[in-house]
Design a protein that fits this description.
The complex is a heterodimer. Chain A has helices at residues 2-9, 33-42, 100-111; strands at residues 14-20, 23-28, 47-55, 63-71, 76-84, 89-91, 114-116. By secondary structure, chain A is of the alpha/beta class. The longest helix of chain A has 12 residues, at 100-111. The relative contact order of chain A is 0.13. Helices cover 48% and strands 9% of the residues of chain B. In chain B, strand 2 (68-72), helix 4 (80-89) and strand 3 (95-99) form a beta-alpha-beta unit. In chain B, helix 3 (37-45) crosses helix 6 (135-151) and helix 7 packs across helix 8 (182-195). The chains are: A alpha/beta, B alpha/beta.
Chain lengths: 164, 202
């Protein structure tokens, strides 16, 4: 229902969509992202459940930033994905949704995706001078730690041991 | 002749033996509970298994008031400097029991986030295997520590702890010189130790 509404209000904003057993997903380009979010916010999608990201190393736009919303009035849920390239940033939602502050810090920490306009974009989980971003698929599983045993590197690293 | 008149009121012994006898029967445990091993620890302390049978029931949650640290669970690299600080704060002489495989070797977490065994950063006296170890194994670990205390020499224990303090000073020096966080300093020290083929940073 909300997807049709977005289509009517912002034609062409939704680049791709799919649904599986009522599990609605839309893909939105970065350019039209804020307009869609503001529309969702107005339409009652005011509970931002989660922000995360997915790394697709073989894709040109390497990351999907994934948002989950819940409409508390209608109990409707929506997943929104924004594809971004490595080094590209996404506008922050921290001013619209308080909870986005830490979620975005987490995504920044683990994937290295920057959020424009974020009030305090520091690492959340790993320490300040942690080398690299741990959830990227080319990050070695042992973090280059010599104390982890041989042969525990991520598949995308071709078995090489990265030292920060 | 006077020796005969006091009979068995006097016993001659070594200083080490009598001090260690006192130490081993009055351990003050401090739980460093960070994972599920801490749940087994609760069971070990409470009435069914009851560690107080071995003279170690005075549990304290402050490192200043305890001399046996029980590391119960997974220590992450981010927690490493905290663990070192808390160990440094404990009253001397101090002992460490590494409870469970995570604390002892990183266990199943062979990742960037997990410290591959606390013996890389602090001296450990007894390792208790298990995931998590049952209360019986934990108590056996404490008994093994008591055996160890009985046999050790006072000066060796002192030197053992002094070596750790030296490494702590080295850590602070590196941290200030390079302007790193505590976590990164320990990581660098670990990497350096690995290059030299040493298993620990103290």
């Amino acid at each position: 229902m909300i997807i049709e509404h977005i289509d009517a209000q912002l034609p062409g904003a939704i680049a791709d969509r799919h649904a599986f057993r009522g599990d609605q997903t839309i893909v939105v380009a970065k350019a039209g992202f804020m307009a869609v979010v503001e529309l969702l916010h107005r339409e009652g999608f005011q509970f931002l459940v989660d922000i995360t990201a997915v790394d697709w190393p073989e894709r040109e736009q390497r990351f999907d930033v994934v948002y989950h919303w819940l409409n508390l009035a209608s109990q409707e849920r929506l997943r929104l994905k924004v594809p971004v390239a490595d080094g590209e940033s996404v506008p922050t939602l921290a001013l619209l949704f308080k909870t986005a502050n830490w979620f975005e810090r987490e995504v920044f920490d683990l994937f290295g995706i920057c959020f424009d306009g974020h009030p305090d974009l520091r690492r959340l989980i790993t320490w300040d001078d942690f080398p690299g971003h741990a959830l990227r698929k080319d990050f070695p599983l042992d973090g280059g730690d010599a104390f982890c045993m041989e042969g525990c590197t991520a598949p995308y690293n071709n078995g090489e041991r990265a030292r920060a | 002749m006077s020796e005969l008149s006091i009979n068995d009121a006097v016993v001659t012994t070594r200083l080490d033996a009598v001090v260690n006898w006192g130490r081993k029967n009055s351990l003050w445990p401090m739980p460093f509970g960070v994972a599920c091993c801490a749940i087994e620890f609760m069971s070990m302390m409470s009435s069914k298994y009851d560690l107080s049978r071995f003279g170690a029931e005075a549990m304290r949650f402050s490192p200043r008031q305890s001399d046996m640290m029980l590391v119960l669970g997974t220590i992450t690299n981010k927690m490493a400097p905290v663990l070192r600080t808390i160990y440094a704060q404990m009253a001397e002489p101090k002992w460490v029991i590494s409870m469970g495989v995570c604390a002892s070797s990183g266990g199943m977490y062979r990742t960037y986030a997990t410290l591959q065994g606390i013996d890389r950063i602090i001296p450990v006296d007894v390792y208790v295997p298990g995931c998590p170890p049952r209360p019986e194994s934990m108590i056996y670990g404490v008994m093994k520590l008591q055996e160890k205390i009985e046999k050790e020499s006072l000066s060796m224990r002192k030197d053992h702890i002094a070596r750790f303090y030296e490494s702590l000073e080295r850590q602070e020096a590196i941290q200030t010189a390079k302007g790193l966080t505590g976590q990164q300093t320990i990581r660098e020290m670990l990497m350096d130790a690995a290059d030299r083929g040493v298993g620990s940073i103290f």
